[in-house]
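Dock magnesium ion; give full complex structure.
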Amino acid sequence: MKIAILPGDGIGPEVTAEAVAVIERLALPGLTLFSGDVGGAAYHRHGHPLPQETLDMARAADAILFGAVGDPSCDALERHLRPEQAILGLRKHLGLFANLRPARVFAGLEHLSPLRADIAGGLDMLIVRELTGDVYFGAKGQRMTEAGEREGWDAMSYAESEVRRIAHVAFRAAAASGQRLTSVDKANVLETSQLWRDVVVEVAAEYPGVALDHMYVDNAAMQVVSHPERFGVVLTGNLFGDILSDLASAAVGSIGLLPSASLGERQTDFGTFGLYEPIHGSAPDIAGQGKANPMATILSAAMMLRHSFAREVEAARIEAAVARTLADGILGGDLGGSHGTAAIGAAVRERL
Ligand code: IPM
Ligand code: MG
């Protein structure tokens, strides 16, 4: 069981260290961890945010635990050298098209949400975000118009095969959990979304047991914070999924709590090859201060054990330990508490 650890920038190394300590505490036999440089850290050391060596290491692993990338000192670099290109490059090169972002308010922890407790209690959704297409990976550029103005442009597109394969992931998740599937698009304005909707309807024919509905993304944003109980599995494209998952995390209480799994088609000896990362970024403002909440990364490690290593029991133990830690009031600054990164990590390990 080979895990590549890619801590990255800002708070990435701090939160990743706590998740690694949790994995090590489980003392699973046959586990090998190795680590590599990624993001701004890699740029400063090797001149590139995703060095070939790191990409090779990621490919050789069964799973990747990723921290965060983003470094303000790189903001002026050409786009292809910026830290964000590391995560976008890993997703694309490794074919990790299916991003699972579960967001739920743990029972008894409704008070951590900025929403009214009676609303927050209904939040338990799985966002299935397409991760290797859309406006993220389309042609883009800046040009001069005929009138002599500067113009920025980004092409949005989805091929039907891209929509179909992510739709199957979402339908399977909905079928397995017995939840409704909501496909989120902007079909009232975008052709890309119209095709998306048409293909989702076609795929739905193969899943007669799954209740499907469609929602425009602006309405979905409103419903997430007013009627979160309406959502079970949410299927959406790359850009809308990026935005809705941050919104869902704020509704849970903190972006420091939401893990993610990015999966492709490749199977390893143990499960599905994947990359696991918190949905938050590198938070340069608090980096190096021991203040970051490591729970999202610890929960990402749990998702890794579940999807890449078929270790459901251990995954559930980690999730229960995190829930217990929260319930015991061991909270970081993101949740109005005063516990630091190391204290939260230690508290989760004690509860394992
Ligand atoms: C995320 C992040 C990334 C994204 C950034 C860092 C490129 O916001 O994983 O949600 O936009 O996908
Ligand atoms: Mg994001």
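Observed: Residues 160-177 form the longest helix (18 residues).
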